[in-house]
Amino acid sequence: MRNIWLLLGATGLLGLFSACGGDDRAPISVESGGSNAGKNGKAGSAGHGGSKPTAGSDSLGGAGGVEAGESPLAPTVIITSPAELSDPDEGSVLTGSEVTATCSATQSAAVDSSKVNSATVKLALSNAAGKVLEEKPGIPTSEANEYSAKFSLTEVPSGVVTFTCTAEDTSQHSATDSVSTFVDKGPIITILKPKANEARALSEPLDLDFTVEAAPLSDTDTKADVDFDSVTLEIVGQSIDLSDALDKDGHYRLQVDLANAKLFNPAPSGPIPIVIRAANERNPDPVVAEANEEILVDGAGPLIKITTPVDKAVVGGKVRLTFEATDAVSGVDPRSIVVAINTVGYPYDPASDSWGVEKNVYTFEFDSRLVKQAKVQLTVNVGATDKVGNVSTGASELLYLDNYPPVVDLDPFNIRTITPTPNAKCSSSFDPVGLDGVNDLDSVEIAGMFRALVVDKTNTADEFPIVHFAGTNSSTVRLYIEDDETKPLLVDTNDDGICDDVAAKESSKSIGLMPIAKKGAPLYIKDDSTAPVFSEEVCPTKEELPKPERLCTNKTSQMWQVIQDEYNNLPVIFGVSVTPDDECTGVVWELAGVLHKDGWVCAAVRAEDVVGNVGISRPLRVCLDDPARAGSPACATSSTAPPTCTKQCTPPARLGGDLSLWK
């Protein structure tokens, strides 16, 4: 009941009465102002900024009454919708996602009252505890003195809500009105299983567990009971039978086969919506509640893609395998990732230096020289499962092995070239790097012609007639010299007693060599020396024919032919400053530019193949005798022995004579 003060005419007597008419709402407190007396059967209230009228106070007359604290001069404020509702069984409750509240605010009929200030009209929505959930300015409607505002009910729970309208006149007299009613969101649906965003395998049955409970709006609410015939379940829009799922007390339990093609076609994959609906028994319009949940259904294993090395690539030494493992639904389980090299598996180990990962890209490094049962090739297989157990189809590739470095020589044995069968013929025996190339133990003045024979080698096996080469990396072919007899030119880096690298790879006393393209014709001069044997073919000697022209027009080269490795069609002869014109086979290197004394000089060539296998030549011992320097060095007079040019290691053997290279 709302308590009011009633002013009784001009008698000045002030009596306290209880307002009648079924309005039993609690009094609403405002800072100042209130509604005028006599509105909609409700008593008026005291004026703006004033207190309740007391005995002997000046009365404004007997037309209605004023609410405590509101002035008779204040506007008349009446909420016209929604209607007051004290019992949810006796009227329409609020449903849906929003509601429009309206109120009227009119000027008081009292003498000296002022017009309503429309800018001050506000409507507010409060919950059962009196907390204001939302307050909005009243928007004038098409009706005179009427204002409205829309309120969202989406986040408002079922139960009592109160709408309040306040307004002031231009003299700042204020008034307020409130009504209470009910919001009904329908039954309470609680999904116990599955959990939101839970990842599930398509092959596993989906367990569903949920409850549907009544949500009465008051102690006497008889229409909130659940209509269990209205409860429905949809998965990906497909209705699921619940006839055997109801246990007791509104508890539903069931399993759904997501792989059932009769229910789901196509099979669900990715984010899958689950929708449960239930209605209460409110008349005439039952209120339907809806619960939504989304899970992830994963029906396929991870996608694996090997990025490097590519399939059928030639690899050697330490190989860095890079692959991408992705699963768009549940994600890849890193613990399941395994790289198998031939028959040996290597599980992902984040603590191992062999493994690395960045986002979805994994790297695994292995030594191809240590792979068991791998002569000329190996297989790589990568597998994984996702986080719900789906197995990937995996990725695989075949790799060819090249764990042999190029063989290199500055002073190789003579060779002969052979024509293809049938009727194979051999050329005369010749020096593949030319007669003008510096040989071991030669003497030079201030410059020398250095050419190198660089032939790539690779893994071979009798049962594999086709071989695969990484190929020489031409940019790595470099000539090194050392004139300090206290420093070795070649060293052993793996302690096996064999010289396998130069001592100072970044030495300034070095120069890059350039490949010389295949050119020229074999030289056929009568040659009575023993004919070489290639495979099972005997290559006869050839009667003398005229010599072909030398390769370079400046005649500085004594070469008639530059050979090529016919296995992989790559150059094998390298020289200094090779150009297509008059320097077509290279130029001499001026040693005086980097060496500043006469004596023994060590020279060797270093080369790598494309996968990083390092090859070096045996060292040349060259006597440097600069005529501009007085006297002859000891090396020219044979008074000193040539240096070893190594640090207690055996240099590579001299190269040449293998006709299979020059077929």
| Sequence stretches where pLDDT stays below 50 over 5 or more residues | 1-66, 659-663
Largest sheet: 6 strands, mixed
Give Rg in angstroms.
50 Å
Shape: elongated
Distance between the termini: 116 Å
> What structural class is derived from the secondary structure elements?
mainly beta
- Give a count of the beta strands, DSSP E runs of length 2 or more: 47
Walk me through what this model shows.
- The structure is a single chain.
- The protein is 0% helix and 37% strand.
- It is mainly β and 663 residues long.
- The protein folds into 4 domains: 3-183, Immunoglobulins (Immunoglobulin-like, Sandwich), CATH 2.60.40.10; 188-298, Sandwich (Immunoglobulin-like), CATH 2.60.40; 303-401, Sandwich (Immunoglobulin-like); 404-663, no CATH class.
- Strands 29, 32, 35, 45, 46 and 47 form a 6-stranded mixed sheet that branches.
- A hairpin with a 4-residue loop joins β9 (159-169) and β10.
- The protein starts with a strand and ends in a 39-residue tail after the last strand.
- The model is unreliable at 1-66 and 659-663 (pLDDT under 50).
